[in-house]
User: Fold this.
Amino acid sequence: MNIQLEKMKQNEECERRKRIAEEKHKEWVQKKREEERRERKRKLSKEMAEKATRELEKMQLQEKAEVKYKEWLQKKRSEEAEKKKKEKEKEKEREAELQEKKTRSEKIFKEWLQNARNKPQPALNGYGFPHGKSTGLY
Assistant:
């Protein structure tokens, strides 16, 4: 009977240990799953933060590029306007020079015409040349 009692105690102890081991195993598995879930959550949040940071940097880069493009475009337009202005000024100067040249030419022509009227006519039959041309042989 003692042996049987001893065996029963041992069986009960063995069963109790088994249950404790199973409970500890279940707790360990649950902890492990919880840790893995937290780790996945942490990785996911980290990836999302990195993605958001990349998107923000991309947007900032794009805005910076747009600003530079607008500055370049404005500079180009102002240069074109300046160039057109200079061309117009040159054209005006050329026209002014042409006008001045024309008036000077007209003035000189009028003076020449006035002087030509007052000049004496050359002798047509001078020195044996009728009508100013040589005639025949010597």
User: Anything to note?
Assistant: The mean pLDDT is 90. The chain is about 85% helix and 0% strand.
